[in-house]
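Incident log, structure service

09:12 report received: a user says their structure output differs between two submissions of the same chain.
09:20 pulled the input from the user's history:
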Amino acid sequence: MATWANLCERVIGLGDGTSRAGRSAQPHHRLQDPDRLRMFFDQGDEILMVADVDTGCITDANDYACRRLETRRDALLNRHLTDIDGRLSLECLASIPVEVGEPQPQSLKSWFQSATGRRFPVDLTLRCMLQGGRRFVLVSARPSAEDTNDSPSTSIGDRPFGGSEADSTPIQLIIDPESSRIVDANPAAVAFYGHPEARLRGLHLGDITTGGHGYVDDEMALAAGGKEHVIHCAQRVASGETRALNIHCTTFRYDGRALVHAIVQDAGQDDALEHRLRSAEARIAASLENISDGFALWDAQDRLVLWNRKFDELAPGTVELKTGLPFSRLLTAVLDCTTCLADEIDRDAWIARLAKTHEVGGTMQSQRPSGQWLLFSEHPIAAGGVVSLRTDITELKTRENELIEANCRIERQASDLTRLANDLESEIIAATRARQQAEVANKAKSTFLATMSHELRTPLNAILGFSEMLVTEDLAPRSVEQVTEYAGYIHESGRLLLDIINDILDIAKIETGKFPMAPEQLDVEEIVQNCLRLVTTASEEKRLCVNLEMPGQPTVLYADRRAFKQILFNLLSNAVKFTQPKGSITVRIRAHYPEWVKLMIIDTGVGIPKDRIESVQRPFERIDNCYSAMTSGAGLGLALVKGLVNLHGGRLLIDSEEDKGTTVTVYLPSRPQSTGEMDMIAGLAS
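09:34 re-ran on a clean worker, output below:
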């Protein structure tokens, strides 16, 4: 069975027909097979990839494959082959046979697609192999001659010495720099120099190089310095002629010692490559000069490598740009001509911030004394170094400031409009309230006129009627008893008329704040008893049960005597008036906190609808029902009570339910009250 090792040796040109046992007998300084295989695998000039047949995923790839597919090795591994070439499906891989002995490769022409989306033609060779009991496919791909975008060092037309496909493998040598002797060589080198492999290994490079041992030893010492080195020389080749060559040397360590990996190329190829590089550099330089942004490239040591004219224009005038200029020198010059720093910002902190941005990438802004604004963009690159871009953003900042000012103006206008809207809304609310008050006043006036037309006309008619009977001869009473009776009717009607007028005048005084008040310490029980006697006759006529509940100790009230009596009498009169016969009335007196007295009048009368409790406390408001129509009154009682309670800084509450009764609660002070205490009782009562 073909294995990974012997298949790779055939593909990359290491197979020489020598058995593994024979190779192990070669001189000890020759590289061991696994290391030699890995090195030449990575240095190959064709795309080499290994994929698992069962999954179709890439398990290994050489450096050239990563370059041509424009991706990193870690990104390429585990990708499916169909991402690169749609023809390499699992069915295609499974169809490749594994044969005993020499496997037959499958060749086809196809197209590969790089990570950036670029497509290029390739000549594919697929070989199946076994490794650890699993099947793998070795994919070998050479860019087709149709691919004009191939890199200069690997395109078909630039192969070192022309020849067939088999002759296109790079000439590679492993050299000991201390002795300048060849340690290992690939078959292409053996064929090129025309020496047997056994003689080529161990041969001093100076034996085949014009200039001799001394020149080669000096060049090997330079190559062993650790950096890439190119030896320009002439060497004798298998044809017998002397060819001008360039030997590209790279140092690596193996088994504790330094060795040089050399790739031999025709000098003409390097000249062509150099010409293409110069052309590419010229195109890049022209492109950089024509971009609108300032561009600069810094190496891994933060030294200036490349810059364009725009970057020079935008650089501070205090520094001269030149190759090798440290970034720290430019950084200091930038700070010296920056005027956008606020006073509270430390200049050293600003330098540290810009240096950090240059190191890790990012953007910052800077303003010059002339008012010019610059945007600094720093972009670290993977190979080491930083790309710096400088953009003039003065116009953008000007527009930004204009937008900010416009937004500020809009916000101010919006604020003014909001304020005007609020003022207008307040005026509308005030006008609505004034209209409602006017409507209420107009309604009150209408109610007042309608009520007074009856309440005033009734006693006046009685007075006029009975007085007319006294003075009219035909109607004059015939006895003293009749005169006395008529005089009593006239007196009763006059008293009723006087009470109505007094209530109206008292309400007017209360509303204008001119009601006379003379608060004093009052004995609550005494006044309550007097008022109960005034309603005794009316309550007895309706056979009402009147109860008085007083606290055990004397209760003192701080109020105007006449006002308190009027409050209590009006509430008792309403309770008697609106309680059906055989009902009950309870008068309850309680001390409510040390500074207040709580007076409750509880009846079992007709009650007040919930939606009318607030309205009946206004003047001339009466409940329209069949029972109230049978009772007299101008609707001033509760309005007068509320006004008198408010004058004392107290609180009036009404709780009522139709056909079940009404509870009127009055809070009055037991001593002079401050404004804060009055507010407190108002809150407690509510």
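09:41 both user submissions now match this output. Likely a transient worker issue. Closing.
09:42 reviewer note: The mean pLDDT is 79. The chain has 21 helices and 22 strands.
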